[in-house]
## 1
Amino acid sequence: MAAIRVRLANRSLASGDRLPSIRGLAASMGVSPSTIAEAYDRLAAEGVIRSQRGSGFYVARRAAAPLVLADAEPRRDRAVDPFWVSRQSLDADPRITRPGCGWLPADWMPTAALRRALRGLARGADDLLTDYGNTRGTLALRRLLLAGFAEEGIVCTIDQVLLTTSGTQALDLVCRLLLRPGDIVLVDDPCYFNFRALLRAHQVTVIGLPYTQTGPDLAAFETALGQHRPRLYITNSALHNPTGATPTLQTVHRLLTLAKTHDLTIIEDDIFADFEPEPSPRLAGLDGFDRVIRIGSFSKTISASLRCGYIAARRDWIEDLIDLQIATNFSGPSPVVAEVVARVLTDGGYRKHKQALHLRLAHARQETAERLRALGVEPWAMPRGGFTLWCRLPDGLDSTAVAKAAMAEDVVLAPGNVFSTSQTAGAFMRFNVAQCADPHVWAVLRRALATAQQKTVQQEHAS
Amino acid sequence: MAAIRVRLANRSLASGDRLPSIRGLAASMGVSPSTIAEAYDRLAAEGVIRSQRGSGFYVARRAAAPLVLADAEPRRDRAVDPFWVSRQSLDADPRITRPGCGWLPADWMPTAALRRALRGLARGADDLLTDYGNTRGTLALRRLLLAGFAEEGIVCTIDQVLLTTSGTQALDLVCRLLLRPGDIVLVDDPCYFNFRALLRAHQVTVIGLPYTQTGPDLAAFETALGQHRPRLYITNSALHNPTGATPTLQTVHRLLTLAKTHDLTIIEDDIFADFEPEPSPRLAGLDGFDRVIRIGSFSKTISASLRCGYIAARRDWIEDLIDLQIATNFSGPSPVVAEVVARVLTDGGYRKHKQALHLRLAHARQETAERLRALGVEPWAMPRGGFTLWCRLPDGLDSTAVAKAAMAEDVVLAPGNVFSTSQTAGAFMRFNVAQCADPHVWAVLRRALATAQQKTVQQEHAS
């Protein structure tokens, strides 16, 4: 009975199909024909299949219905909150274009190296394929991370690195360890929208620091430290999300000096590191892992289908984080996944892939910026690397209205205020230059801008 | 420079080794010899390598030291708390035997089907290998779960199932949604030790219900409902951990009736389902997903190296859980991993593997029970399936003392009180019958029992 139900569920048997013969199925499953006959009889009694005299059993018309349900598309009437972009981007039908999403198209990823790694893994040791692995995560991958830190001049040891199931889970674990409801946390304004969603789940008070072309506004940072005694500051290193800006060495140094004076811990999200053509100054590069905690993942440049992140931090915090990860996830990322990531990182092809990716992205940034400017959409900064362009819409148009109009035509955009704690980024929008190749994007964007423009004019006339 | 540091980190270059020639490395990396020469000069300036006139470059003695650090073994002096068994079992040197751990040896797992699935995946579509996937998790795997629920007679739809990164994370997400600090939660006494660790992280009050051969003590359940107004009850279906007992149909029915009267939600952890020779009555089988939430994973019978769990629950709860999973992990399990699990589940070899596994475990249960009885260690019940034997030690010996003595001889045991909220299981111990083949286990257990016995006698003489 289960075997037939599985076939109905995975659509290998559809409504009206003839079922395998009793003798044939009995032979292939290694059971007696009477067992199959009884199962068919019971399924027929349930109305899942029907018997046709002299001809065999057939799938009943209504049988397949409750099981083969496909996912509904995401609700489009949902409020445009920090979850809006995530859920629209992740769950949209594959034919929907997503210039608002935060990842590269599949054909920009190192698929050849991924396939090599998977084939290698299929020949791997039994225990690698079946065991939980150790509590800190696959040693080979932690060693590679350590080598990267050494390259930055950071002195640390292997027991300061913990693998996690994602960059987001890395941040979540640290927040669970260090935050209590009601604590004050600083973020950039704008910042990655999911920082806001995550911090809301932790019931903390979030304060945004205006983000400038050289990093967070230092005067605002100093004021916030004095006034609010925040427990944490969470920011991006290398390339800021959504602006693509890079903090300068002076900003990094002054942030750390102020953090020390006020005994503040800083979480540096290094997720975009591999998009940098040349490494930029980083908080941990100056501080080590003293008051800086670094988190990151491999989703952006290797694969988002391999969920794996990491935390590098003080040894005593890592010990506590291991217990917390056991309690809440039993172990870390899939050892199979961490092994594939390690294999791709040491695959000769990956370095070349990365170099080609930098060039391809630089080209896409230039081209997208030009096309946006032609529509009156102005990049706030030209990033050194990565896929984001943070842009101001013409004449202060409301980007949420533009995003809603585009969504009605199957294009997911990322309106500015999902990134903003102060809700002051309504005139901004984040574009993913790697997801803008489809001409449909530009036709829809042009129309959506015009629609929003019209509404603004109507409102002005009305007032 | 990075390339050499990576080789030092992953031990492909060790202290004293000769580095590749400048020309050779330049050719293989596709850069000019002068680039390599400059990198070598800088590494030499840092003291990582040294140049030997006329002979090339060599790894300096001290260079490799900070990078090639291996993990330290877990601390053995750690308190025997709910984390003790997890960390000793997961992090122990591979040569250490683990009759206390909660998983099967690698050669008991369906490795042939796993290898087939990985090879198939290496030929999969680009987006499967690189994308986040949708927020509910791989459709193919959810459909298989749904087919299994249908087999139990549970009517539900695909939007009532959410994939998670593990069974533990499934439980954690549900607790984050439904619990607030200070809430009361019922568990079995004894219960899976990590339930206790997880609930501690949620800062709730945990009340244990004595577990009987037919399921939780119903009188204690009714009293607890009346006195404490608990928010949740968390239990195992099919095969209880650690006792291996199965709740009867009467118990399941009465639990649900009482739960309804007191508006209690029950989480049913179905992780051991595939170990059952015949399916037993389950809470969701009677209730559907009304007040029962089912969680589970594939770690025990498919692979623990493929981190993937699930939640089946009310539709509105699943919607909230999706947001919570995005906020705290961005997406669910690796799509690559969920795909491998789905392929193994539909692999013809898996069904046969499962049947053979049931026989092998039945044999191991019998044999282990006999050997334990010969040492005066008495199984509390003979489970219908699975790998656990919950046993009473002779003459009320303290199982923590026995576990510590065994640990000193490199054998990880699972003492009863790590499973017990009331700390009344000191005379019990959980044995994993699949991990008891090594004769060393039996020699050490015999000595550890004798050591604990001696201590008890000495204490009696002293008092």
## 2
Amino acid sequence: MTSTIPQGGLEFSPTADGFTLHLGGRLLLQHSAQRPCLSVGQGEADIEMFRGNFSIKDNLHEKLALTACAIRDSDAGLCVTLSRGEVAAATLMIAQDEAGRLRISVNNHSPHHNRIWLNLVAGPEERIYGCGEQFSYFNLRGRPFPLWTSEQGVGRNKKTLVTWQADCQENAGGDYYWTFFPQPTFVSSRRYFCHISNSGYMCFDFSAPDHHALAIWEPQAELCFDTAPSQLALVSKLSAMLGRQPELPEWVYDGIILGIQGGTEVCQQKLDRAREMGVSVAGIWAQDWEGRRITSFGKRLMWNWRWDEELYPGLDQRIPQWKQEGVRFLGYINPYVAIEKELYAEAAAHGYLTRDAEGRDYQVEFGEFYAGVVDLTNPEAYRWYKEVIKRNLINFGLDGWMADFGEYLPTDTFLHNGVSAEIMHNRWPALWAQCNYEALAESGKLGEVLFFMRAGYTGSQKYSLMMWAGDQNVDWSLDDGLASVIPAALSLAMTGHGLHHSDLGGYTTLFGMKRSKELLLRWCDFAAFTPMMRSHEGNRPDDNWQFDSDDETLRHLARMTGIFRRLKPYLQQAVAENSREGIPVMRPLLLHYEDDPQTFDLAYQYLLGRDLLVAPVHQPDCRTWTLYLPRDHWVNLWSGEPDSGGHEVTVDAPLGQPPVFYRRDSAWATLFATLRDA
Amino acid sequence: MTSTIPQGGLEFSPTADGFTLHLGGRLLLQHSAQRPCLSVGQGEADIEMFRGNFSIKDNLHEKLALTACAIRDSDAGLCVTLSRGEVAAATLMIAQDEAGRLRISVNNHSPHHNRIWLNLVAGPEERIYGCGEQFSYFNLRGRPFPLWTSEQGVGRNKKTLVTWQADCQENAGGDYYWTFFPQPTFVSSRRYFCHISNSGYMCFDFSAPDHHALAIWEPQAELCFDTAPSQLALVSKLSAMLGRQPELPEWVYDGIILGIQGGTEVCQQKLDRAREMGVSVAGIWAQDWEGRRITSFGKRLMWNWRWDEELYPGLDQRIPQWKQEGVRFLGYINPYVAIEKELYAEAAAHGYLTRDAEGRDYQVEFGEFYAGVVDLTNPEAYRWYKEVIKRNLINFGLDGWMADFGEYLPTDTFLHNGVSAEIMHNRWPALWAQCNYEALAESGKLGEVLFFMRAGYTGSQKYSLMMWAGDQNVDWSLDDGLASVIPAALSLAMTGHGLHHSDLGGYTTLFGMKRSKELLLRWCDFAAFTPMMRSHEGNRPDDNWQFDSDDETLRHLARMTGIFRRLKPYLQQAVAENSREGIPVMRPLLLHYEDDPQTFDLAYQYLLGRDLLVAPVHQPDCRTWTLYLPRDHWVNLWSGEPDSGGHEVTVDAPLGQPPVFYRRDSAWATLFATLRDA
């Protein structure tokens, strides 16, 4: 029997019939015959997709708790073999890597065992954060979180009428864990992180008081753990491992990026009107630059990824003109090609699309139209699509685009690399991000041109330049309205992605929802305190209040974009810090106040950089707002009143004055003070 | 190795690594190392109840497929030991009983294995019926059916607004399989039945094309199979085994039993008015005979099971008077005692109530009031409650009652017999039926006094004199309205209970639902062609159209009760046949036309006795109706038109003329013909 091996914080101690494993003093894994830490088994996944909405069930054939334990040393580290009679066995290879991280490889011995259940030790008071972009919960304790990239759901709460209506229509209502950006990575309040390199379906269940139950639908798994003396250091270590985002182009901070559709002249007119009313405009984002189609859902795009000269006459001339005026033009792309058009024909001719079981090009139904899936695992196809981005987007003159989708890879399609689509499904968004990233990098445009994504997975930290929160409802709901953007940004921050923004005003306009003026204004107030302001008309623009629906709105926008613009140096510095040290721009309070347990569950307020505390108003008809201030020397941004924190505080919160405090001792205090008169 | 044993139709054949088991030529069980028929494992049930609505999950620790097979003869029959290495094993004891039925006992060898999964062989075209009272499906193929007695749900279809509203309020919406009367018993179109004697939670999954997956949350199980040359013979064999219902009191056929509440004079006035308008009245059913309380749900009863002299002054005199006039008086009881009153005090004093974990009397929340659970496993308590029934109900003069509830036994209560409430939960309704039955039998009142129940389980066939379909919505929904009563009656018929009726007009009046006049009239038309007519005011009487809401309704009722009354000899004979031969009164068409596959899935039409085919109109605003007529010599009851069947037919279906055909060659044809002029 191998004896205790303390090794840079790794402590493995055999016991009578098992072992304990500590890292940096934290008990992570514990095994005994009575309480085995590992089960293995066999299941058959039953995965149905309809328009990005997944129904996932496991047809479980067997599950075996591995009770017996044998330990030996090996060149690759400690080798722990767990078994159950002659019936099943698996090996845990336990080692530390050069950076001092704990690495555990789990390997099933039986080829037909394709399920792993691993229990980590948990404490009753422990909090868990991360798992990608989580819209409903910041602290994930108390619930299971299936990790599968998909639509985020419309409503996302079975007790709302909107969710029920969306469910009835196309199983689209979703639930608290639905997300475009899941990730098998979490941070514990015990100051360790856990990351799994796999990409098959997983479910992390944080319900039990004494353990975290990690279910992995693969025959082997690679886990990685690390600890740090503080949450901030831990998040920094995590992002060092996963990769960090480069800085944003400098022009992003110059004002709002206006979401406009409808053609060159519409853009010109709306731009003129906005500027005339004093709005700071950094760009125009026209997702229909490549044409559009009308479906029952609303206006949709023509997925052929090249300038539509008919809808946007003279755009090639107008882009440089706008640019000279300080206004960038941004477009849209996604990893699918509509079957009616020439990009599809080209991809099909070269065999660049994913296949169906009969070897034909797989066609995905996207709501009254079909598209092929560019096979990003085929190096030729990947290169080709990168060239499409370079030629049709970058060289055409776009200064940015929404790189939409990524979460729809059907599990019954066949890929060039021979890996099951069930395993590639989660990896797809990161692959899609990488494709965009490389197109930029190879064009020498990193730091100048921007793309932003909603879908993500491990790898997106490195390749996705900016996340956006996907498709919120144009409403006040906690799970899918304005509010949901905040835990989304914070959970992503705890997963190593530090750049986040949202559709200003929300997107999904269905089931009688219509964006009110108040919602647009509150969202504007919120967006001014994020690293990027970008509006969206929504899927049914005519039903929604828009930035130019009246003069008051435009004046409001003028004021808030002015504030955003004044924050430019502060934001730039925070974004640089994120790039350099992996400390997110929108931060959970606990990153700086982890000695105060009150901050552990704050899902609806955040720090913007180190020195601003923001608590967006996310309910209608409020003129005051209550938030929590940790102990520090705070100043109310609008009233100038000081507050030393350590308590809840209720502040005046009229439209245009979102609850914001700054640190009295901030190096930026003078700048912040000027905003009071904005 | 034991060789083939053909034994009265039982054929057991060892194979290279397993066996096949046939009964009467039907392949029922098949085992090989590759496709093991049995898995065992361990789970921990997580069962939550709120007002009879259950949320049930299994925390599954392990599941092992038993691949190896060893066969030996024993005194008790064939002994097949299935195992998986040294890790798990179970024994199948296979034998035929004196009646030629196949008996299989499954026994886990390991004491900690408390789950059994058994796969039976299925054919792709096979239909499955039964599993108790199923409201949404008659043919159960294609879905899993959890078997757990509970409320039936309000709406019972996640795509209806009512269901969603009920779910939001108290998880009360239910689903397609929710039922008061589940039973682990089914009949296959391959002409065999399968019955399991256990009572723990089970789930029978009929989704797979090649097998039926039976999950049983107990360490052992007792299965029983039999075959017959026809479905009719099979159902008769099944009811011979399970027990049959005695004949109904003769007075039941004399007219409607009017559901009235509000006191002696209200009953008198409504009775007078009904009779004055020509309604045939067999009885008054006053559920509030023992007093009432008002809650937010509507009018509820005072659960103290004795005449409330204040609300019903002079009732002791009025009952014999009404009886002389041919009108019986029926009351209400259930197995709970309200904590405010003396029955509870008496039960508590004697220790007759079930207990909580601390040994105190368990109190169940029933919606703004609490009640104790009479412990029917305590022989003293059981006897006492029988005496309550005899003294307070029978001796007081009631000629019948609703024996409500039975499905609410909480799983965290503790019982006198020491058996876990998780195991007793399903048995409770049958125990409750037996208590009522014995009270009647011991009073010599069987065949004279009637009780009817909604909850049931194995055993209810013998002890529950009459079932009613529980609480339908006062609406037209397929899953919870008028329509749902028909598959309920038919599935119960295939489970061996042949007497069924429903609340005429439906019951649940919530979420804006209000009973329309048309619904009441259609329900009346339907009820006239069932073995019992009984109206209900609903839980919010003032919101509902009632039998006496206008003269036209009363005239309609007069006509339909007249028709019902004229059917008396025919109904009596059908009920006698049910009692004697176990052939249900409301019969699926396939019982008499099993050569016609078109009849296999008919969920919304039935045979009443042998000679009437009834297809109730269950949608609003219809004046014609389409039904299927199997090949036979049929006569349209209302038009007299003949039809030789073998096709769908669309008939006129005005109010008061529900689609009904009779067999030209019926011995009752003359009687039926007279109804044309009714």
